[in-house]
Amino acid sequence: SKNYKIAVLPGDGIGPEVMKEAVRVLDVVSKKFGFDVNAEWANVGGAAYDESGSPLPESTLKLGEASDCILFGSVGGPKWEHLPPNLQPERGALLPLRKHFKLFCNLRPARVYKELAGACPLRADIVGDGFNILTVRELTGDVYFGQPKGREGVPGSKEEIGFDTMKYSRYEVERIARFAFDAAMLRNKKVASIDKANVLTTSVLWREVVNEVIKDYPELTLEHLYVDNAAMQLLKRPREFDVLLCPNLFGDILTDECAMLTGSMGLLPSASIAEGSFGLYEPAGGSAPDIAGKGIANPLAQILSVALMLRYTFKEEEAAKAIEAACEKVIAQGYRTGDIYQEGCTKVGTTGMGDAIIKALA
Ligand code: NAD
Ligand code: IPM
Ligand code: MN
């Protein structure tokens, strides 16, 4: 029978709490749909630093390489933010993983469940019958990775500077634009490309390339939006968006906004994929130090990331849909973690939400 090898990297903060639920759900789904999962756990981020002195130990990287994909929790927290950059969970583990596995494309599907329309901070007449926005975020370029980066000058002096380089190659923009356009062809055929072409040279190239690539997709409607305007338009007319094509930094920022539009940071899953079938699947949100260790984090983003993993790496569409349907069902049944709680609903913790989803899958 089919045997899938997964590296499970729970990370820090709420990571291990929500990961536990996600893997329980994966176990149930694998039995139901007839595939075996060989899940091997390893430390990453702050947890790995505390244990071994490195946020990304060689053994963790090797495990990822020996696996079909990585299921990732989240990394970081106040405990590690004063370490030198290369030892920090984010810059020493997550970003290197994205680069190492060439995960150039980050998909963040944000949809409003009908029953959660009230959890969206926008007015009911704006939310209407909901929206469904897929952000396609470039993930291995931009100011995140552009060189040079660094600090210069006498430490503590007024002249001391810190700098990063925003940079995109034609190749990188074309590759992510095609991905977004292909995705839009299977959806509502509308793309908004996000840039800051009134200020940034990187964005001028971005816009130029996007305008070239769109010629191969005559059925699509394309609009260009400056990122500041996009931040505002998303609040004004979320239902009119379909696919958001974003450079790395702007995509990072706008997807937190998209997450909150769906009701909570704890609802947004993500797939970071390479060419081919390898991917890293993780919630869009972070380690949530403010609620970590309390058993109250919303596990839905992590569980929905499992669905994306089954869809994109393993092509188990039925199993992916079953997880998504179960999440929808428990929301319709009124189960709510604290972040999306509304009066009259059944308040559950992280494990309670996992239990409800497993029951819904049966
Ligand atoms: P965050 O996403 O961790 O938290 C922002 C807010 O959303 C908090 O109020 C938090 O409680 C809430 N939230 C997030 N996930 C939730 C969930 N599942 N259920 C309920 N509420 C949830 O962002 P932050 O506070 O800016 O960052 C905390 C740490 O996480 C930082 O170290 C940051 O670098 C890191 N981070 C990691 C990742 C990742 O590993 N992919 C992503 C984002 C941030
Ligand atoms: C995300 C996170 C990361 C990013 C950080 C933790 C490096 O915010 O996945 O959205 O900025 O990409
Ligand atoms: Mn982010």
Task: List the main descriptive attributes of the protein structure presented here.
40% helix, two-stranded antiparallel sheet, Isopropylmalate Dehydrogenase, binds 3-isopropylmalic acid, alpha/beta, branched-chain amino acid biosynthesis, 362 residues, binds manganese (II) ion, binds nicotinamide-adenine-dinucleotide
Verbal overview:
This protein has 2 domains: 1-104 and 276-362, Isopropylmalate Dehydrogenase; 121-261, Isopropylmalate Dehydrogenase (3-Layer(aba) Sandwich), CATH 3.40.718.10. Helices cover 40% and strands 20% of the residues. It has 12 helices and 14 strands. It has helices at 15-33, 46-52, 58-65, 89-100, 124-127, 170-185, 201-213, 227-236, 248-261, 300-312, 317-332, 350-361, and strands at 3-11, 36-41, 69-74, 105-111, 132-138, 150-152, 161-163, 190-195, 221-226, 243-246, 269-273, 279-283, 335-336, 346-347. It has a 10-stranded mixed sheet, with helices on both faces. A hairpin with a 5-residue loop joins strand 11 (269-273) and strand 12. Residues 14, 18, 74-77, 90, 94, 264-266, 282, 285-291, 297-298, 301, 339 line the site of nicotinamide-adenine-dinucleotide. Residues 5-357 form the Isopropylmalate dehydrogenase-like domain.
